[in-house]
């Protein structure tokens, strides 16, 4: 059972958001029937956190900006660097803006590889791969 059962995100334009998010969430293995229910569209998979996009009740005066009070970004942990690159490409092809192309982030760890994208509402996602450090090599202490 996931620690977080579901995550709801309110977007400026639900139709645009569904068009952008669906290819990404589908590529991550989540599914949706695409129907709006109580103002939102949901994606889920057994054992995973459900993600729901909600229609904003009124048009926002300005788009969301990362770094303001509230949501910073949502990071999806994936199995490989190639998967980071694939998901980044899926997102960009679906209308997301590339904020940071796939690259290493050694300030987090030697293995950390990630990319960042933003949707039309200014909501940011990260696709990241950070495998455990190999502690089986001679002399390895296992600490990061």
From TrEMBL:
Gene3D superfamilies: 2,3-Dihydroxybiphenyl 1,2-Dioxygenase, domain 1. PROSITE patterns: VOC. Residues 3-130 form the VOC domain. This is VOC domain-containing protein. It comes from Leucobacter chromiireducens subsp. solipictus.
